[in-house]
Amino acid sequence: MAAAMRFRIQSSHSRAQRVKPVVARHPFPFSIDHHAMATEYPFELHVSDEDLQRLHQKLELTTFPDELDEAGWDYGAPLADVGRLVARWKDGFDWRKAEAAINAFPQFTRDIDVDGFGTLNIHYLHQRSSVDHAIPLLFVHGWPGHFMEAQKIIPLLTSASPDHPSFHVVAVSLPNFGFSEAPKKKGFSLEQYAEVGNKLMLSLGYNEFVVQGGDWGYSISRIMAHTYGSKTVKAWHTNYPRTNFPSFRSHPVLYLKALVKSCTQFERAVLKRNQWMMKYGKGYFEQQATRPQTLGYSLADSPVGLLAWIYEKLVEWTDNYLWDDDEVLAWVSIYWFSRAGPAASVRIYYERVHAITLDTLFSLWSPIPLGLSFFPKDIGIAPPMWARTIGNVLHESVHESGGHFSAHEKPEYLVGDLRHMFAKGGPAYGVVSGKSGYA
């Protein structure tokens, strides 16, 4: 195997020619031999001192907006919160410590050919269990998540015990995110993300595997289950079960039950949360789905703008989770220092709405086993009864607390659900040939 490849980010601004000042942020800082990259290369993240210095310079030059008296969270991320985080990012936050924590996980890159889009160099974390018969699991993040969203569940999933199954975990940086290459052509939508996930697992020698995803990871996993189900994808699990009210044509029994059955307390809470989201929290989606490039100038040039844009979601989409300032800054820094820059990450919204309607997405069904985890402070999820239309639901858990980023916020809950689903006697035990999850 080749020596470890270090990802050194150099500021594109320092290399910009005066006659051609418009350049992409953070190009990959070494030439890529696509023939050589047909194999796996170890990856180590190292942000250049130049880029760190430039970040601090930008933070020094921050101009904050004013704020109305007693505005709280009504108008968005509070000035006091953002001001405190910026001060910490500028003078106290230790990126090298955060970087070392990222590099503590085994990471790699390899080329993946995507139909119609050429070859993309894909970054991923690959943590194998000590159990030879561990179940291969692909973790798919969304926005504003990233591959390190899985950092708390990986030690739990890969742990060996006679009492629960173990997993080999692959956490991919989706194209346009983290340290994967971004496509250069329009139209890279959910189907292409699903293709990348499937081909990545096959390239790792996992001819059969299972998938877990939330946020966009739910949509991508659903397409993977529909497209590759029973071939390579043997089961899937989501903590973001989204769908419409049951249709009489496709699910007449569930339709009638949903009409006459009284909502549970949890279902009422979910519907109330969805009403709040539609009224107060959906603006970001409309912006990212219609004019991602216009928004991208602010995200790419202003670290404070990026911080506020993501911090708002981290707080409002979780269930009173106590975010540590350094935890937030490490999360946002992955976006700031990402390979394609943070603007690339929001294009997935535009591409989805122009490629596939929600009704079409919600109609995709697969017979492979499906597990659902429900968290009350998530955004846009369906009540459990509606969600049984998503697929072949064989495992379902309703939790009393938790929000959108359950892998980070409630790792024990999410891992417990996966263990129960794939355990001996569980509904998805033995779905991957020769990979029971046990020694």
Automatic annotation (TrEMBL):
Gene3D superfamilies: alpha/beta hydrolase. GO terms for molecular function: epoxide hydrolase activity. InterPro entries: AB_hydrolase_fold (IPR029058), Epox_hydrolase-like (IPR000639), Epoxide_hydro_N (IPR010497), Epoxide_hydrolase (IPR016292). The active site is at residues 215, 349, 404. Keywords: Aromatic hydrocarbons catabolism, Hydrolase. GO terms for biological process: epoxide metabolic process. It holds the Pfam family EHN. Residues 42-149 form the Epoxide hydrolase N-terminal domain. PANTHER family: EPOXIDE HYDROLASE, EPOXIDE HYDROLASE 1-RELATED. Belongs to the peptidase S33 family. This is Alpha/beta-hydrolase.
